[in-house]
Amino acid sequence: MDLATQPVTDKNRDAYYWRLLATALSFTLFGLGGLCLRLVVLPLLSCLPGDAQAHRQRTRYIVSRIFWFFVRFMARTGVLTYDIQGAEKLGRPGQMIIANHPSLIDVVFLIGLVPHANCVVKKSLWENPFTRGPLRRTGYISNDGSMDMLDAAADALNSGQTLIIFPEGTRTQPGQPPAFHRGAAAIALRGARIVTPVIIKVSPTTLTKAEPWYRIPKRRVHFSFRVGADIDPQAFAALGPAPQASRKLNDYFHHYFIKELAEDERSEA
After folding, report:
1. Distance between CA atoms of 98 and 248, rounded to whole angstroms?
2. Who has greater pLDDT, 158 or 210?
3. Pair 220, 14: CB distance under 8 Å
4. Which residues form the Phospholipid/glycerol acyltransferase domain (predicted)?
5. Residues 103-149: pLDDT tens digits?
6. Looking only at Cα atoms, what is the longest distance across the chain?
């Protein structure tokens, strides 16, 4: 997998109107890819031999490859550039990957980087008729805030799956620090062998919660992904009863990301 930032040699490709057109093409391609996945690819995959787990793994792999193709298409057409540090540490059994959520497509990057990972996804995607079918086939987990969700996520980790989760539950408000919900910490204490943070920075901001796809920034966007040091959740499990340990681990996650994001800001100044 090519993780290096792809240079765009044609200076015109950094022009506003070219990037606007390329962004529209990217989202059109993504939509058509999802439709093709639902109507053609998944029915064909279901005809292959194997049990439910084998079908789930095949579907996750195909979704991951489609997502990574989408990332590479955006890079090749000059919509964005990216750099990724430490990707080789992702994808271990029982690993919970936590990340801040500054943009709509950072989840596309992470699923593209970890081919067989499970993922906690927005409940609204499970209610969308275009995404509901593929999500069911992948076995991704709906972020509905219920105990069933926590159980399913912990069970996935205990069975040796890698789980991607965004503790904020929604995209970060521009200019605001990330605010983590306690669910990710509770899941980590119940099932994760190790927790690996991924610090994501987007400059300039794009595809935040308040921005439609066509409101692109004046210059090309750069995504930076940095995989941090592993966190042992069991070190927090010994700090008290489950609710107290969960609160302390969530506070640690929160302060860790604020500190790391602030250091990135200082290093660029």
Report:
1. 16
2. 158
3. yes
4. 95-203
5. 989 999 999 999 999 999 887 777 776 677 777 889 999 888 788 99
6. 59
